[in-house]
User: Fold this.
Amino acid sequence: MSRIFSGVQPTGNLHLGNYLGAIRNFVGLQDDYECIYCAVNMHAITVWQEPNELRNNTREVAAAYLAAGVDPEKSIIFAQSAVHAHAELAWIFNCVARIGWLNRMTQFKEKAGKNRENASLGLYAYPSLMAADILAYKATHVPVGEDQKQHLELTRDIAQKFNNDFGKEVFPIVEPLIFGEATRVMSLRDGSKKMSKSDPSDYSRIALTDGRDDIARKLKKARTDADPLPETVDGLEDRPEAANLVGIYAALSGQSKADVLKEYAGSQFSVFKPALTDLAVEKFGPVGEEMKRLMTDPAYVDDVLAKGAERASAIANPIIKEVKEIVGFLGA
Ligand code: AMP
Ligand code: TRP
Assistant:
């Protein structure tokens, strides 16, 4: 049977990219698959997090899942640190993954920046923990944004090497699920950079909690070129900012980019931006509102997380036991 696993880091500033690239896609999968959605707080601490903010941001990720429409009765929502299997399997995978594989990870290079010697060891081992997240449940499919593709390839390599080393088909070879018209939402200030939680400029991203005024202000300021919108998707080539806004419109309205251009070909951004603002407020606004409401009821969110952790452990515990026995850990 297929099983879905995905995670979002509780590092604050959840944005439109997180929503369109990942969280929104989680919702539709619930009807057909067993789904497990995690707030990956162990990944978050690979860079410094203030403990109270980490607690709050962990609830916020859970609230975002719920507000987007993940049903806690059907799907499992939990915090990574509450299930032992993640850390245990990550250690085993640290001994399976090769340093050369990790050296190729572009996210590490970006996040560590110039001062690589000073990055945490956890940041370097991050993809090995991510493989453990997924494979502790023998999940088969992982819905994510495009930026996670390389990490999922590493997950496949780790599964394959483990299976080979121990001569047993223990772990499935996972399939990424990267879909929709906005798998890589770009910064509103710079069409060559992805929209990210850590961009110092608030104007680079639309936050999940932004209201109409914020959304309108940010889209008005969003960088564009001076030309009207083209007639075809090919006409968006070499126009990264225009392509980004059309992609966001398409994703929010559930159309293809070609359909959006049929309606808006020849329009100036002075027309398109207000239309996009209205659409964003209509589709995205209620999610932010519900998330804010849920954050006023932390006891409810904590209860969802606690029940989720129990259900997650019930799946992961027998798998980690099996793996420890295969590895040769006595008293597993
Ligand atoms: P993170 O913010 O790194 O925890 O990412 C959580 C999820 O959101 C992952 O599935 C990412 O691939 C996705 N994501 C993050 N940023 C973007 C973006 N700019 N566009 C599309 N998906 C994104
Ligand atoms: N690395 C992912 C990100 O930054 C978050 C993540 C951690 C994840 N573990 C995962 C995503 C397992 C999917 C599956 O976006």
In short: The radius of gyration is 21 Å. Residues 202-293 form a domain with the Tyrosyl-Transfer RNA Synthetase fold (CATH 1.10.240.10).
